[in-house]
Design goal:
alpha+beta, four-stranded antiparallel beta sheet, 9 strands, elongated
Length: 222
């Protein structure tokens, strides 16, 4: 690194008062010593600093009520009309029967089998036994994801999500749901993880869009 040698002004006569030129030269020399290898000739103004305003809070007195049971996608809902599973593994259940019973219990018509993607078995609740992931194509663009586990021998829905599913991934115990954004280069990624009681919303991020998605899930792609 080349060091700059600051020019010094000619020495003033003893007893003479410092001139403005002498003071300025001394200031430049001091700045050069402090900044080390900074090129003083390269310094330039970026213009007037932008004003930073605090956000304007609209309706500060308003506070929303907490989500109801039906609005919480991770609420645990026992599925009526399906047999109990003493062994605790969703591998022992009939996937379509579970899906149809859950949707019918909500007052909806069960989907045609052709609209249901292949079921996936994967341990999301970290109990050593597989849970069941089902996805239903509601139309050309929107889909619905439902996840089931056995809780105390009862088949229980632990998550339901509806949206434009650009991808569903399983990694390190996390369930990652990818959805498109207004920018086609990126997707939003919502990570869910079992916290011991429910599928907790763990993280929200942006990621590069993938076309096509590479299947990673064991037992089929959701």
């Amino acid at each position: 690194m080349r060091r700059l040698r600051a020019r010094t002004a000619p020495a003033s006569r003893p007893g003479a008062a410092p001139t403005p030129r002498t003071v300025a030269a001394a200031a430049v020399a001091a700045l050069a010593l402090v900044t080390g290898c900074t090129n003083l000739e390269g310094l330039q103004s970026e213009g007037r600093a932008r004003d930073v305003d605090a956000p304007l809070v609209l309706w500060p007195g308003y506070s929303p009520a907490p989500p109801s049971r039906n609005e919480n996608p991770a609420v645990l809902v026992p599925v009526p009309g399906v047999p109990r599973i003493p062994g605790g593994s969703m591998a022992a259940a009939n996937p379509l029967a579970v899906l149809d019973a859950d949707i019918a219990a909500q007052g909806r018509t069960p989907p045609a089998p052709s609209a249901v993607r292949p079921p996936v078995l994967h341990d999301l609740t970290d109990d050593g036994k597989p849970d069941l992931l089902m996805a239903v194509n509601l139309g050309p663009r929107s889909s619905e994801l439902r996840v089931y586990a056995v809780r105390k021998t009862v088949v229980t829905r632990i998550l339901v999500l509806r949206g434009v599913l650009a991808g569903v991934e399983l990694a390190a115990g996390h369930l990652a749901v990818r959805e498109p954004t207004k920018d086609p280069r990126y997707v939003s990624v919502t990570d869910y993880v079992w916290d011991g009681h429910e599928m907790d919303l763990w993280n929200l991020t942006l990621d590069d869009a993938r076309t096509p998605q590479t299947p990673q899930a064991v037992g089929g792609s959701p």
